[in-house]
Specification:
Blueprint (H helix, E strand, L loop, with lengths): L5 H15 L4 E6 L3 H10 L8 E6 L9 H6 L5 E4 L4 E2 L4 E4 L4 E6 L2 E6 L9 H13 L3 E5 L8 H9 L3 E5 L8 H8 L5 E3 L4 H10 L9 H6 L1 H15 L8 H15 L4 H10 L1 H11 L10 H18 L5 E6 L5 H17 L5 E7 L2 H9 L1 E3 L8 H7 E4 L2 E4 L1 H4 L2 E5 L11 E6 L8 H14 E9 L12 E5 L4 E4 L8 H6 L5 H6 L11 H14 L7 E6 L4 E5 L17 H4 L2 H17 L3 E10 L2 E11 L9 E9 L11 E2 L2 H92 L2 E6 L5 E4 L25 E2 L3 H11 L3 E7 L4 E12 L2 E11 L1 H23 L3 E6 L4 E4 L1 H7 L3 H4 L25 H8 L3 E10 L4 E12 L9 E8 L1 H23 L3 E9 L5 E9 L1 H7 L3 H4 L4 H4 L5 H13 L3 E7 L4 E8 L5 E8 L1 H4 L1
Parallel strand pairs: 1-2, 1-8, 2-5, 3-5, 8-9, 9-10, 11-12, 11-17, 12-16, 17-18, 23-26
Antiparallel strand pairs: 4-7, 6-7, 13-15, 14-15, 18-20, 19-20, 21-22, 21-25, 23-24, 24-25, 27-28, 27-32, 29-30, 30-31, 31-32, 33-34, 33-37, 35-36, 36-37, 38-39, 38-42, 40-41, 41-42
Helix pairs in contact: 4-5, 9-11, 9-12, 10-12, 11-12, 13-14
């Protein structure tokens, strides 16, 4: 049975494709002043990170960009201009072309023409947004130097999809507009100078969570760690993320852990406890909301066409309330206000619309309430709406007052805080996707409770009402717009049980209109501190802090029995929230305290609650005030029984008639004074108003024109700055190139003469004066006016020939002083087929010519030596093929060169043998061994068949490998060999002779001994040493060879007579043999001795015993 491997092959292909993909896609956005920052970034970026880099700049459409050329000199990575449908590869840099927007889809780049229909084009925002949508967590956005705010909107999208953001430190940027705008969003993970970015970027990319070496399941398995993180966030930020979707929460926590470079969740918990700033950063990470003006335009078109008419017509008398929940930085709330204003203006409607915009993020609410947005919003709004509802100041757009007054912003926890009521239109987009189903149901019940019957609900494109179809019916399913069915207006027990605390009183305390004042959290703490100091040591009943505008700033205790939120238009005014019995005394008391700066107390104020009359005492106390702080009062409300006896010294019964009469008298005086001033003011204003109105119209028209012109100039200025930076860099390169050319001309050994198209001198090197009679002031003179020192050549005719035919002429020429030059005349090329003059170069070859001549002589000698030497020489190439051989080689081997060429040492032709007659393998031939090992092989004895002699020729052969400079492998080998056939025969004869001698030496009856004579400093023989003796010597003398060889005669026979030594010494000194009869008393024998000198310093003796003869 055949095994199915399709699944395995598919996985291997998938793994291979993944290996070819970048680990991260790094988008670098820059504008004016960005070139230097980009170059610094890439100079410090290694080339093998596995990342892909896409550089987005504001480029001029009218000038050629030099970025590819400039950036290629700063990195070894491949730098290329982006092309349509180009696949992005790791370790590559891609540059946006001029006049194009760049997008990414499925890892490929796509180009489109820039769109200026909505004003300024923002290419960085365009690419950042597409990158986030395509690569999600693998996207990294970097903002470098530049003016304006391009990239700010794109960074929000990158963060929404889980990407990472880096921004250049403001004080290191030539233009800090773009970095400042990006930093102001609070979304930057790192704020660094460009040279420090690469190290941090690589560390982030290699982090196990960022590289997905550790999966989210690891975090999910550590429930204790997650619980501690949620606890810290709930304690520090007052938000419980327990019921948010784990996948979203875990991804955001992982990102923060990668940012601070920690891998263990418990270490991260410790880090949170020690670093409050990281708690805030994580909180912001979890609350990232991405919005824009008229996001998903189709949805707003449906609202305009199908919803606004019913909403405004059915509620035109009582006003209309909208609620934008999770509004983030307010763009959607303002978009709805603009949409409604446009609708009413066309139809001449005048409906009081109040839009409540809420979010849990205090900073986002403050940003939205300010109504100030970066100039990049021009990409989301038509020029008409932008000019009509915004005015530009500095580099930002400010929302118009008419739109701002339609929107009320408040911090509000959609999960815990009570919902708004009587809502006709409710929008909550892209928030529910982060919640678990149980929380989603709770929120939908709140929405159902808030909406009027037939009220409109708009959700995000990835959201739906789910199981709540009994409460909502679709108006447009595609754009997720629903209508309330008006059913079941109560909130279920489940929704209540999920709410940690009843926060209705907190909602009043934190209520924020955004129209007049904006207290910072630090100021709130100071206010509470002043309040507590004032009432220090006393029991604190229901208390409220109010400013001079009658606005409630804080409450202590539950105010529900005495204060209610009014219906209709929502206002923060204590006199309108107080029950009717307390309204007048509170108003009167506050005015008195602010006027007299003394505490006011009222008692016996009768308040009816649930058909029960309650006596209330009221204290209005001025709070302690430091310089620069606003005036505040504390209102303390306590209940008393009828039997209670009050200290009349401090309390006064509240007499409504008396207080009202006094209050009316004060009001009449104020009214009379106001009337007199008002009439005069009206007359002045009527006159001024007409003049100002005309002037205002002119100013508005001029302002629009100037604003449009300013935007165009700013865009052009950025482009020109980028072009200037590139040109500046190019000028530096050209200066360096000019200096290089000057140095080359001044130091080169080549003499150069450059002529223009009119054959006039353009430039020349100093050493050309050896050939042409040129001076510095000859620049611009015709070459025909310049004399030369060349012999037997007319350079002018050659120059004209090159000018006519555009060819090249090479010639060897000589000067009058005997120097020889290689002259080349060729066209001056300025393009593929364009010429602009003549280049004449001279290379002094005098020394090389001399060397060449010497080399030719040397080669001739070598050739003669090669051809006449007795040694055979053979050259073989790197494969072992014979390419050359000298005559001696032909004679020794019995073959001609033609017969040997192309043959190798392994060819059976040679019939090579060892000295013992066994075959000699070709691969062991010295030439083949030298080629293989690269080492010399010396004095190898072998026999080769000689076809001429039909016999074996014995040779001694050596091989030497030859190398080219810098090579590690031989390119050739040469072998030398000599014919040792005769020497070998002589050696064989000598060996035979030696064998005969040895046999005679051992078998002869005469004693034979070989000695080395020893002389003193006077050259007198004093001793001799035994070198060799034969068996007869041992027999006749009784001395054993192994006992005397190497020893001297005096060591063996100290008593020997000196005459023996002297006689033998004379033989060694004179070389004359000596024969004599000698008696040895040591041996007590007579010997007939013959002594002779076989070699210098030695003597040999042959003797025999003559005792028997004498007898």
């Amino acid at each position: 049975m055949k095994k199915n491997t399709n699944g395995k092959e598919s996985k291997q292909k998938s793994d291979l494709a993944e290996e070819l993909q970048p680990a991260y896609y790094v988008a670098v956005g820059a504008s004016a002043g960005g070139l230097e920052a980009i170059e610094t970034f890439f100079v410090n970026m290694p080339a093998n990170t596995g990342l892909a880099f896409i550089v987005i700049q504001h480029l001029s459409p009218d000038y050629k960009s030099l970025m590819v050329e400039l950036l290629s000199k700063k990195t070894v990575m491949q730098v290329q201009r982006a092309e349509d449908n180009m696949v992005i590869l790791p370790n590559n840099v891609y540059l946006i072309p001029p006049k194009k927007n760049l997008r990414i889809f499925h890892g490929k780049l796509f180009l489109s023409d820039q769109d200026h229909s909505r004003g300024v084009n923002l290419p960085i925002d365009v690419f950042f947004k597409s990158l986030a949508e395509d690569q999600a967590e693998k996207s990294i956005g970097i903002i470098l130097s530049g003016t304006g705010s391009d990239g700010t909107r794109g960074l929000r999208v990158i963060k929404e999809y889980g990407g990472m953001v880096m921004v250049q430190k403001e004080d290191t940027a030539k233009f800090d507009g773009m970095p400042r705008a990006a930093i102001s969003t609070g979304l930057a993970d790192y704020i660094l100078p460009p040279e420090e970015m690469p190290v941090q970027l690589i560390s982030f990319a290699k982090h196990p969570y960022a590289a997905k070496a550790i999966r989210s399941e690891t975090l999910l398995s550590d429930e204790e760690g997650l619980t501690r993180i949620f606890s810290i966030l709930r304690e520090k930020c007052k938000v419980d993320f327990t019921f948010y979707k784990p996948s979203t929460i875990n991804r955001r926590i992982e990102r923060r852990m990668a940012i601070i470079q920690t891998e263990d969740i418990r270490e991260y918990v410790s880090f949170l406890n020690l670093n409050p700033g990281e708690v805030v950063a994580l909180y912001r990470e979890l609350l990232i909301g991405v919005t824009s003006f008229f996001r998903d335009q189709d949805a707003f078109d449906i609202i305009y066409q199908k919803c606004l008419g019913d909403i405004l017509s059915s509620n035109s008398n009582n006003g209309v309330r909208f609620w934008v929940a999770a509004c983030s930085t307010g763009e959607e709330a303002y978009s709805l206000a603009i949409l409604a204003r446009e609708y009413m203006e066309i139809r001449s409607l005048n409906v009081d619309i109040k839009i409540f915009a809420t979010d849990i993020d205090r900073d986002a609410i403050h940003f939205a309430a300010n109504g100030i947005y970066p100039e990049s919003i021009a990409a989301d709004l038509s020029p008409k709406l932008l000019s009509k509802y915004f005015f530009k100041k500095d580099d930002n757009y400010h929302i118009s007052r008419s739109i701002r007054e339609m929107v009320v912003f408040a911090q509000h926890n959609l999960i815990k805080d009570p919902p708004f009521t009587n809502i006709s239109f409710l929008s909550c987009r892209n928030f529910l996707i982060y919640l678990q189903p149980v929380l989603q149901r709770k929120v939908f019940e709140f929405f159902n409770f808030s909406l009027n019957p037939s009220g409109i609900l708009m959700l995000g494109t990835s959201e739906s009402v789910g199981e709540m179809t009994d409460y909502f019916e679709p108006i447009d399913s595609k754009n997720k717009i629903y209508r309330s069915k008006g059913r079941s207006k109560h909130i279920t027990e489940t929704a209540h049980s999920l709410s940690v605390t009843d926060t209705r009183s907190r909602d009043m305390r934190n209520y924020y209109t955004g129209v007049k004042r904006n207290l910072k959290s630090a100021e709130d703490e100071k206010v509470l501190d002043r309040f507590i100091q004032t009432l220090s040591g006393e029991f604190i009943p229901l208390s409220l802090i109010v400013n001079e505008h009658f606005e409630i700033l804080h409450t202590l205790g539950d105010p529900q029995n005495y204060f209610k939120l009014p219906g209709g238009k929502l206002v923060n005014d204590i006199t309108k929230m107080a029950v009717k019995e307390l309204s007048v005394p509170i108003t009167t008391g506050i005015q008195k305290v602010f006027r007299q700066h003394k505490e006011v107390r009222f008692s016996n104020i009768r308040v009816h609650q649930n058909n029960i009359e309650i006596l209330v005492e009221l204290r209005i106390i001025p709070l302690k005030q430091k310089k620069g702080q606003e005036e505040l009062v504390a209102i303390v409300i306590g209940e008393t029984k009828k039997s209670d006896v009050l200290d009349q010294q401090h309390y006064q019964s509240f007499d409504l008639s008396k207080e009202a009469e006094e209050h009316l008298r004060e009001l009449e005086q104020d009214l009379q004074f106001t009337r007199e001033n008002l009439q005069a003011t009206i007359e002045e204003l009527e006159t001024s108003n007409e003049e100002l109105q005309a002037t205002n119209e002119e100013l508005l028209a001029s302002n629009e024109e100037l604003q449009s012109t300013n935007e165009e100039l700013q865009s052009t200025n950025e482009e020109l700055f980028t072009v200037n930076a590139e040109y500046q860099s190019k000028i530096i390169e050209l200066t360096e190139l000019y200096n290089d050319i000057e140095n080359i001309l001044n130091t080169s050994q080549i003499s150069l003469l450059l002529l223009d198209e009119n054959l006039e001198v353009r430039r020349f090197s100093p050493n050309i004066t050896k050939i042409f009679s040129l001076l510095n002031n000859d620049i611009g003179r015709p070459i025909t006016h310049i004399s030369h020192y060349l012999m037997k050549v007319d350079p002018l005719s050659l120059i004209k020939e090159v000018q006519k035919n555009y060819g090249t002429i090479d010639s060897e020429v000589a000067t009058a002083d005997g120097r020889i030059f290689l002259m080349r005349i060729e066209p001056y090329v300025i393009g593929p087929k364009s010429y602009s003059g003549i280049v004449i170069s001279f290379v002094d070859v005098s020394e090389s010519r001399k060397s060449k001549n010497q080399l030719e002589v040397s080669e001739d000698r070598f050739k003669k030596l090669f051809e006449t030497m007795e040694l055979g020489v053979v050259y073989q190439d790197e494969e072992g093929n014979i390419i050359s051989a000298n005559p001696s080689a032909e004679a020794i081997l019995g073959l001609t060169l033609d017969q040997m060429q192309g043959k190798k040492s392994i060819d059976p032709l040679w019939q090579s043998i060892h000295e013992d007659g066994t075959p000699f393998p070709g691969e062991q031939h010295p030439s083949m061994v030298a080629l293989k090992t690269g080492k010399k092989v010396k004095d190898v004895i072998m026999g080769v068949y000689n076809p001429t002699k039909n016999d074996t020729t014995w040779i001694s052969i050596s091989a030497v490998p030859m190398y080219k400079e810098g090579a590690n492998r031989p390119f050739q080998v040469y072998t030398t060999f000599s014919d040792i056939t005769k020497v070998r025969q002589v050696q064989n004869d000598l060996l035979a002779s030696e064998e005969h001698f040895r046999m005679l030496f051992n078998e002869i009856n005469n004693g034979i001994a070989l000695h080395e004579m020893i002389f003193n400093e006077n050259n007198e023989a004093v001793d001799y040493r035994f070198i060799m003796v034969n068996p007869s010597f041992e027999l006749k003398t009784g001395l054993k060879a192994n006992e005397i060889i190497g020893k001297t005669i005096l060591e063996i026979m100290p008593e020997i007579e000196g005459s023996w030594i002297k006689r033998y010494g004379d033989v060694v000194l004179t070389g004359e043999p000596s024969s004599f009869t000698q008696y040895s008393k040591e041996l007590d024998k007579y010997f007939e001795v013959r002594a002779f000198r076989p070699a210098k310093g030695q003597f040999a003796v042959i003797f025999h015993d003559i005792d028997e003869i004498r007898i």
